[in-house]
Amino acid sequence: MILRNRAGGEAVDKPNVWPLSSLERTCWGEPVVLRCGSTRGTNAQYTWYKVGRPNNIVLHNSPDLCLQCSNIIEDNQLFCSAYNDVSSQSSDFVTVQLLQPADKNCIYLISSKGLGLLYLYGMSVFVGSSSQL
User: Fold this and answer.
1) Would the pLDDT of 110 be above 60?
2) Cα 44 from Cα 83, distance rounded (Å)
3) Measuring CA to CA, which residue among 102, 113, 132, 129 is closest to residue 121?
4) Pairing between β-strand 117-121 and β-strand 94-100 as defined by DSSP bridges
5) Positions of E strands within 74-116
6) In angstroms, rounded to a whole number, what is the distance separating the alpha carbons of residues 90 and 133?
7) β-sheet with 16-19: strand ranges across
């Protein structure tokens, strides 16, 4: 069932999050842009949040969020919200885990349970058993 308001606007659905850069390149100090998008919804707008206690913190009012070494200073849980005058929905959480802090050449892990994402930026990763070495 698709929700609509009296003016005919369509409700947004749960937004997805995906990286705009190639998943195969490393990211030594280069920014990584995450995009938030909803497949339904009239005039959808997007806001990125960092999970905070007691309140979430607005990071950016845009579908795109740029992550780079200089603005990753600790581990965080992020999410985006898609909204319009009919409804609002939030994405699954995206976890950013800082493994090696630095203004440049930092190493961080981006993961999201909902999409099965696991991206390690800033270093090459060997996946396999030790018998393959």
Assistant:
1) yes
2) 5
3) 102
4) unpaired
5) 76-83, 88-90, 94-100, 107-112
6) 42
7) 16-19, 32-37, 64-67
Using alpha carbons, list the distances in angstroms from residue 39 to 11, 16, 62, 82, 116: 10, 9, 16, 10, 19
pLDDT tens for each residue of 36-92:
999 999 999 999 999 998 999 999 999 999 888 778 888 889 999 999 999 999 999
**Could you give all domains of the chain from N- to C-terminal order, each with its CATH number?**
16-22+31-120 (2.60.40)
Q: Over the chain, what is the mean pLDDT? A: 78
pLDDT at 9: 84
Q: Who's near 72: CB < 8 A, 6+ residues apart?
A: 96, 98, 101, 106, 108
* SS3 assignment, position 79: strand
Closest CA to 110 of 92, 128, 126: 92
